[in-house]
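URGENT: need a sanity check before tomorrow's submission.

F., can you look over the Epoxyqueuosine reductase record below? I want to be sure the sequence and structure line up before it goes out.
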Amino acid sequence: MLLQDIQEKVNEFVLTNPKNIVENPEMISTSPTSSARMQIWDLPLIGVASATDALWETFKQPDIIGPHHMLPNEWLPGAKSVIVYFLPYTQRIREANRIKGVTATEWLYGRWEGELFNVALRQLIVDLVEKTGHHALAPLLDERFVVADLRSNWSERHAAFVAGLGTFSLSRSLITRLGSAGRCGSVIVDFHLEPTQRTYTKFDEYCSSCGACAKRCPAQAIDKTGKDNGICMLYIQKEKELYTPRYGCAKCQTGVPCENKIPVRRG
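Structure tokens as predicted:
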């Protein structure tokens, strides 16, 4: 199976699947002329990482993720490649969440309903691969996926880094050539795909260190040293109490230079 075949099926799914559309007359729009019918995701970036790339082992270091982070072949014996994608939010959702303080309603829907779509997209790729007689596994759909002490045993952002899709920001979002306002997905497969070439060497190479995300953070969880995940999660928990089942924030991904592109580095 070729990556081009997967890309075409994924693009078709993004453009035609009703899960990528929110139709809710109760949605509060930031513009009185905005339609209640809202598309969540634009077409994604897709990359490939080798399942034997040396970077996977480094994620087991305590100062990166930790020893509990599972390698591709620990998830899927015989793993050869990892397909990773970045779904960028549409302009409407990004622009809505540029407001200060409260999370835009569009973003709340985009985050919650958008992840339901993301679950379906991961499963689509698994099904496409298995129809060809190969094996595939999406860690976030597997019962072994766990989050403990604010760290999970599989990081799709780190998988995207290995797959050449982007590097990390001060807020620890992933910055891609389509920006940081989006979500990742990943599927491990047991056949070889040509790995995407990484055009960077540093983990934060695309970050301009401008500090805009720190100024945007309502929880003040970000400073020049990075993000305090504990403070961030306490704020998200308050959002869940306010907007259940939805939640969002992500002010660090909107209204910043890396929202929809790689920012220009200073100096």
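My own read: Residues 105-131 form the longest helix (27 residues). The CA atoms of residues 50 and 135 lie 16 Å apart. If you see anything odd, call me.
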